[in-house]
Amino acid sequence: MSKKRILIFDDSDLFADMICEYLSSLGYKTARAINGLDGVKQTYSFMPHLIITDLEMPIVKGYQAIRLLKYKKSTSKIPIIVLTNLAEEKDRFWGKEAGADLYIEKSPSSFEQLSIAVANLLEQSSPIDFRAIEREAQNINEQSLIETINNLLDNQLLQMTLIGRLSALAKKMKNIAMLIGELAELLRYICEVDIVSFILKQPDKRERIFIANHGRFTGAIIDDFKAMSIADFNAFFVGIDQNIIDSVIIHDPSNNNQPLQSYFKLPLENNGKPFALVSIASTKNDYFSLKTTENLTIFLNAASTFIHNALLMGEINRINSRTRQVLARYVPEAVMNEMLTENAPVTSGETRQIATMFCDIRNFTHISENQNANDLVCFLNEYLRVMGNKIIAESGSIDKFIGDGIMAFFGAPINLLNASENAIRAAIAMVGELGKISTPFLGDHQLNIGIGINFGECVVGNIGFNERVAYTVIGDSVNVASRLEGLSKFYRHPIIVSAAVQEAVGDRFIFRELDSVRVKGRDQSVAVYAVYAAFCEDSEGGEGGESGAPSKLTISHALLDAYSKALQLFRLREFALCKQYLLQALAIDPQDHITMLYLDRTASFIAAPPDEHWDGTIVMTDK
Q1: Lowest mean pLDDT: which of 55-69, 153-167, 399-413, 546-560?
Q2: What is the DSSP letter of 238?
Q3: Model pTM?
Q4: What are the pLDDT digits (tens) for 249-291?
């Protein structure tokens, strides 16, 4: 097997000889070029399997030679190792961007590392088309190489590097601070800047300043540089109100107190309109040569579009965040996310099983008629906030506020395991919060509410037209829930639910069957129940007791037992015996309004029994 050929580009005779001798001892065939230009020429005659090059060489620098060889199709597959004593990150950056496969610091102690790298690259590299190199060699001469390198490669290297690096930053456009930090790092690689500031005029007319303290200067030097940058910014943006609202220091102050000797500034524009100023300083005298400023200008002009877009994206994000905050007050979060992220039709609906809730303040007309308008609005805002939070806590969606009334539903847009259970839990929590709402205008009276809940099939979705839509529920089930809320006035109980709700939750709550009711506007009757959160025996010791249930939502075992027996006898037309159990229930709780209702009915039926078609249904003529 023929020896692998390795070509070394190095202007140091001593070190080049050391490398060649070392690699020859490992069985490789070596040759040496004294600079980048000589190295490119020898590549076409020696036809190496691998190249090792220094960076800083006369005539043609190492990274220029690398770029040329990687640019040419015939030589692009030749692996290249950078071996140099230039240890700055800037040198690594340019070596890598030129296309080098590996970077190793030059020293005799690194020879072992070099030998391992050479073996690995030779083993892993793609096959090289030496015939293509041989054919291309016929058209290669020193003059053409120099012309190509001088006139093309430097600009191409810079421009291709900028395009590649800036494109990689596109994903960070939404975060202006992160983007500026990355750009400041790139500036450190492109040229040896010690400190740089970006002063940006945001779409909201405020200014932000970012300072990258690469040189780890003291706070005093940073402050002086910042003041100079702001002064230049103010001088450039004449006639515009300056308002620096945020100052970000990238890299904390340290102990470097070297004075800044060179200074460069460049305004950034978008569509011909200036929006930022970049200021750069160095501790070196006359650092910003024509070539350096040219490179900086190319880079910053290319970066200005990314910076401006990032500012716009930040403003869009701010507006979106504000929009979400506003929408969240009116639209369920799941619906809001759909509206903002998908092209959903403005009028769409689907059929679902939904638990619908209506809530109303008792005697609100009487409460409000003597109140100051501002005080009344403050009270309503607080009341609706407290009630609304309890609904949302149980994954409910607030459909609308109707004066002091609330319409909400459970089971859309978020599917719930048991929508009726969530609705009842929310209702109990709402009743429990009433005592915490400030109501000085009520005097000794309590704030009371009535809640009606029904469960059934509804149409839910965006209902309306292009100019105005509402995410809501419609259907007979919704109408029944509204009627149930009205029944809470008649039965004087805070929470009234339908049989559909009671069946959906089973024994998770305490239910007291009230009636079979035919509500106004509906032919079919519906069984209705009062909801309780706990038994009185579990709530001794004051409001809520150990159970935490409000007293309005507690009932004793004995009262419920006596009442349930009375209700069965009532429906069997055993009115006299029914009355005895009702009196037992009333003895347990003389204030129980539901028991008193049935005592009145029983007395009426004892005096005048119902006809043979009576089925126990109560017909309500009022809403």
Answers
A1: 153-167
A2: T
A3: 0.53
A4: 888 888 999 999 999 999 988 877 888 899 999 998 888 887 7
Helix axes 476-491, 593-607, angle to 10 degrees: 90
DSSP character at residue 538: G
Report whether 551 contacts 509 (CB < 8 A).
no
State yes or no: cis peptide before 127, omega within 30 of 0: no
Pair 467, 501: CB distance under 8 Å:
no
| 3-class secondary structure per residue, 291-339 | HHHHHHHHHHHHHHHHHHHHHHHHHHHHHHHHHHHHHCCCCCHHHHHHH
**The residue type at 427:** A
Token pair listed for 317 = 């994000």
Those residues whose C-beta lies under 8 Å from the C-beta of residue 239, and which sit 6 or more positions away, are: none
Please name the amino acid found at residue 426. Answer: A
Q: Are 70 and 99 in contact (CB under 8 A)?
A: yes
Average pLDDT of the chain is 83
Taking 90 as the threshold, does the pLDDT of residue 597 lie above it? yes
Taking the C-alpha atoms of residue 57 and residue 153, their distance in angstroms, rounded to an integer, is 16
Residue type, 251: H
The answer to whether 178 and 210 are in contact (CB under 8 A) is no
CA 535 to chain centroid: 45
The DSSP secondary structure of 27-87, one letter per residue, reads: T-EEEEESSHHHHHHHHHHH--SEEEE-SS-SSS-HHHHHHHHHHSTTTTTS-EEEEES--
CB contact burial 37-68 (16+ within 10 A = b; e otherwise): bbbbbbbbebbbbbbbbbbebeebbbbbbbbb
pLDDT tens per residue, range 471-518: 788 999 999 999 999 999 999 999 999 999 999 998 899 999 999 988
Overall residue count recorded for the chain in this entry: 623
- Give the pLDDT of residue 346: 45
Give the dihedral of Cα atoms 392, 394, 399, 402; nearest 10 deg.
Answer: -80
Please, which residues have CB within 8 angstroms of residue 131's CB and are 6 or more apart in sequence?
none
Q: Which single residue is written with the structure tokens 């079979």?
A: 516
Please give the average per-residue pLDDT across 611-623, as a whole number. Answer: 77
- Which of the four pLDDT bands, split at 50, 70 and 90, describes residue 14? confident
pLDDT at 3 over 50: yes
Average pLDDT value for residue range 64-88:
82
Q: How far, in Å, CA of 408 to CA of 120, rounded? A: 69
> How many C-beta atoms surround the C-beta of residue 360 within 10 A?
21
The residue type of 595 is T
CA dist 438 to 67, 383, 578, Å?
77, 9, 43
DSSP 107-129: SGGGHHHHHHHHHHHHHHSPPP-
The closest alpha carbon to 280, from 220, 210, 202, belongs to 210
In the structure encoding, which two tokens stand for residue 135, read together? 């054919």
Please report where in the chains the tokens 């609906």 appear, as a residue.
349
**Interatomic CA distance for residues 244 and 141, integer angstroms:** 58
What pLDDT digit, counting tens, does each position of 187-214 carry? 776 677 889 999 988 776 677 889 988 8
CA 594 – CA 617 distance, rounded (Å): 16
Residue 256 DSSP class: B
Q: How many of the other CB atoms lie within 10 Å of CB of 193?
A: 23
Q: Which helix (H) or strand (E) holds 266?
A: strand 262-270
Tokens 């050929």 correspond to 5
Q: 477, 511, 515: which is closest to 597 by C-alpha? A: 515
